[in-house]
Design brief:
By secondary structure, the protein is an alpha/beta fold. It contains 9 helices and 15 strands. The strands form 5 sheets. It has a 5-stranded mixed β-sheet with strand order 11-10-12-9-13. A 3-stranded parallel β-sheet has the order 5-1-6, sandwiched between helices. It is globular, with a radius of gyration of 20 Å. The structure holds glutamine. Glutamine binds next to loops.
């Protein structure tokens, strides 16, 4: 990207200003009341990814910024590995995580979730024109790529004699399939469908029915007092049309009516 001189100067000045503001606030790194630090693994388009200018973009990013607006909080996103999000919540280094994260009983043992904000489910992806893989049973003894720490990884690990390879994010797992190194990927259907629709990962298809029905939630530390605030903001966002607007923007369709 071409950086014009004035943009450069403006950024330099802004940088100095914010450095000054930070210095004025003292050196403590503690979370301020008005700032929510929100973790996400930004390799999961269209929910979260890194945009052309290095900024985070996606449905989850817009949704959480809207939640911040409704709640009077400034949102600071932190791009973390997916399997570090729950430990970061437990350790108190982030206030919330939004990352296409499925609400599961297992996760509910250690974190609190907001009300569900998106319906998803797992699907099997294969190379185009694959005839012999239609269901989970067909994956027995096959090579499967997954994203580490996900519900897709859990499902793959339950397939008898499968050889499961884990990747940092879903696009890397799908790329492995596109390259012909594995037989299938088990991943969230909306993310796989987006990779196919955008042409980001060539030569792959989604097969059969969804393997699961899953709901995404915003994860917060166990017992967090922010759960109610986040749920109230979510309800407002759904009621006032913001949710529908974001859904159209990122999925090009009307949101389901539940
Ligand atoms: N929904 C899946 C899970 O929670 C995958 C999420 C993701 O890859 N970001 O495990």
């Amino acid at each position: 990207m071409k950086v014009t001189r004035s943009a450069f100067l403006r950024n330099a000045v802004l940088g100095l200003l914010s450095a000054g503001v930070l210095a004025a606030c003292g050196s403590g790194a503690g979370t301020s009341e008005d700032v929510w630090k929100v973790g996400t693994e930004a390799g999961f388009p269209p929910f979260e990814s890194v945009g052309d200018d290095g900024e985070l973009v996606g449905f989850d990013i817009d949704l959480f910024n809207a939640i911040g607006e409704k709640s009077g909080k400034t949102i600071e996103f932190e791009n973390l590995p997916f399997d570090s999000l729950i430990p970061a919540l437990q350790g108190g280094t982030i206030d919330a995580a939004i990352s296409g994260m499925t609400i599961t009983e297992e996760r509910e043992q250690t974190v609190d979730f907001s009300d569900p904000y998106f319906n998803a489910g797992l699907a099997i992806a294969v190379k185009e024109d694959t005839a012999d893989i239609k269901t989970l049973d067909d994956l027995e003894g096959k090579k499967i790529a997954v994203q580490i720490g996900t519900t897709g990884a859990d499902t793959a690990n339950g397939v008898p004699d499968a050889e499961v390879t884990t990747f940092e994010n879903a696009p890397l797992a799908l790329q492995e399939l596109s390259n012909g190194n594995v037989d299938a990927v088990i991943n969230d259907a909306p993310a796989t469908l987006d990779a196919i629709a955008t042409g980001n990962i060539p030569g792959i298809d989604v097969v059969g029915e969804l393997l699961t029905e899953e709901s995404y939630g915003i994860a917060m530390p166990d017992g967090s007092e922010n759960v109610e605030t986040v749920n109230a903001a979510l309800a407002e966002i759904k009621a006032d049309g913001t949710y529908a607007e974001l859904y159209r923007k990122w999925f090009g369709a009307e949101p389901p009516t539940e």
